[in-house]
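Q: Structure tokens for this one, please.
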Amino acid sequence: MARRRGVMSDALKYELAKELGVADIVAKEGWGSVSSRDCGNLVKLAIERAERALMEDGAKNK
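A: Here is the predicted structure, written as tokens:
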């Protein structure tokens, strides 16, 4: 099964990592050193942002 790559930009991922407090780990050791829990929280935050953006976009189009 092929994986989709590049859905989130590296800049966005790093911005989210800063918000979650794991940017230092990413900078020093790379994404492989970030815990599964923190990665899950990063994805959760990205989804929340995307949903918020969709709702704001929908409100503008009314």
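A few notes: The chain has three helices and no strands. The mean pLDDT is 89.
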